[in-house]
Specification:
The chain is of the alpha/beta class. Helix content is about 25%, strand content about 20%. Helix 2 crosses helix 3, helix 2 crosses helix 4 and helix 4 packs parallel to helix 5.
Length: about 400
């Protein structure tokens, strides 16, 4: 990240080792786990590599989800956001909720980590305060992954949808200026790059997106909420208007208020009814299949308790137990992406957190009870407090 730009994004979390992270403290024991090393068998999850093509185009880490069989399958490519700090410490993105929606419909889902992120090679290429250049640099990794699909027997590279969240949404729009010929549709979830220390960063972002619109003729679908903490409606609507005025084809879905922060809608279970029908309708409009060909049940997680009005999810003062390890764990958990859960033992101060897992509720309780013995309860799930005082 350039010294002139302080970059914000949804995926603000530290990279975990290749096993569940366990954090224990004396007295108030705590366990946090996001299981990033586990693979989800129901989705055929694999970790692959896009080969390097020279010193300037290093190897890329790719997560693949696909149906059983040899294919070829149409492809959905999902582009990740950017965590603050060193991108090398960012874990590979595992969008299990979205992957399940598309694998059920017969798609392979490809999630490339861009150059310099996680276990992909090279260094992140940034453009300082030039957000347009940043997007183009990120899009180069996406184009390489799209070209690589043509060499994979399981992939139908003539039927591809490219989607992205946050910085990945901006990357997706930039990719549209030089998309692989098999790309049919672009989907932007809360796309952008917030650079608070750059002068007039809002205008620079809007201008960059307008520039992409001048060079893109693929249909695009955009999702932004009213309470997006990164890109408020004034920015997203201006970007959409200027993108269309420049010649781009874009439908804006302004879905209103969502949870405590609309920026996380795509990764939340509660967001599925908002985006899945609109995305599948857009896919059908460009001749892509959308019917479910098989059902994949989420692996045996616990049902989520209903949300309560006890406290805003970010209010640390209302936690039913408070000690330094718990507060530190909860702060970190707040920066993790859904699906996620946080459990607490109200008397003993033990806690457990889970995210990046197919069973976050069960794992959060398991982690907490491992130290408390029994009696842990869920405090928060995804973006809602679910704790009820007994």
């Amino acid at each position: 990240m350039a010294a002139t730009a302080h970059v914000h994004d949804t995926w603000r979390r530290l990279r975990r080792p290749l096993a569940a992270l366990i954090v224990a403290s004396v007295g108030a024991a705590a366990v946090a786990s996001d299981d990033i090393a586990s693979l989800e068998p129901s989705l055929g999850e694999q970790v692959l590599r896009v080969p390097a093509t020279g010193l300037t185009e290093p190897e890329l880490e790719v997560t693949l989800y696909k149906p059983p069989g040899d294919g070829p399958f149409p492809v959905v490519m999902l582009n990740h956001g950017r965590a603050s700090g060193n991108p090398r410490l960012q874990p590979r993105w595992r969008p299990l909720l979205a992957a399940r929606e598309f694998v059920q419909r017969g798609y392979a889902v490809v999630v490339p980590m861009r150059q310099g992120f996680a276990n992909s090679g090279g260094a992140e290429i940034v453009g300082g305060c030039n957000v347009a250049s940043n997007g183009h640099a990120q899009a180069r990794s996406v184009r390489r992954a799209a070209d690589w699909l043509a060499s994979q027997g399981w992939a139908d590279a003539s039927r591809v949808v490219v989607m992205g969240q946050s910085h990945g949404g901006l990357t997706t729009l930039a990719y549209g200026t030089d998309a692989h010929p098999g790309t049919r549709l672009l989907v932007n979830f809360a796309g952008g790059l917030r650079q608070d220390q750059c002068p007039n960063w809002e205008d620079a972002l809007v201008s960059a997106i307008a520039g992409y619109g001048r060079r893109t003729r693929l249909p695009t679908l955009w999702f932004y909420g009213d309470n997006d903490s990164f890109f408020p409606p004034a920015i997203s609507r201006a970007a959409h208007e200027r993108y269309v005025a420049a010649g781009g084809v874009a439908e804006l879905v302004a879905f209103g208020t969502f949870g405590h922060d609309a920026h996380g809608m795509f990764a939340s279970r509660a967001g599925l009814p908002i985006w899945v029908p609109r995305v599948t309708a857009a896919m059908a409009a460009v001749g892509l299949p959308v019917a479910k060909v098989r059902l994949i049940s989420p692996p045996g997680d616990l049902p989520a308790p209903p949300a309560v009005a006890l406290a805003p999810i970010g209010d640390l003062e209302r936690l039913p137990a408070r000690n330094d390890p718990l507060l530190a764990g909860y702060r970190e958990w707040l920066q993790s992406p859904p699906p996620r859960a946080f459990a607490i033992h109200p008397q003993r101060g033990a806690w457990g957190a889970a995210w990046g897992s197919a069973q976050p509720l069960a794992k959060a309780l398991e982690n907490c009870n491992r130290h408390a013995g029994a009696g842990c309860r869920l405090y928060a799930v995804d973006d809602a407090v679910v704790w009820k005082d007994e």
